[in-house]
Amino acid sequence: xxxxxxxxxxxxxxxxxxxxxEIGDRDGWRCWLCDEPVDPDMSVNxxxxxxxxxxxxxxxxxxxxxxxxLAHRACNTKKGAVKPVVPWPDELFxxxxxxxxxxVEQLGRKxxxxxxxxxxxxxxxxxxxxxxxxRLSRLAPELALTTRVDSGGGGYLLVLETR
Length: 163
Prior knowledge:
This protein is an alpha+beta fold.
């Protein structure tokens, strides 16, 4: 192959044959699922080695392109064919956190704002908002997002919104 990508269609979904190096460079050699560094020199057969994960964001991806992201082999295998989950870190004090992937998909389609978590303290909500914006800058770099903290009911609501 001469380095150019080819496209293939199966069942109405377009698959792009990609170069691992291109995807790794584009994603900064970070796993999109766990947000940890991926070693480009590690064997692709090693659990911590690089792999390409095909992501279909639409519920019915027929006729849609599949987005490709860098993932560790183990993260990709663990996810399998189910909807991925990006966890909130244990050190953040958040109650009823929203599923990050679902929120990103919704804001990408419709824009607007989504309440993503409740926090007992204002500083907890600010820390969660900081972490979330940093994480989303790598997960969904095409989205311009901001957070807002609203008080009420003895707690604080973390709101994620498009700019």
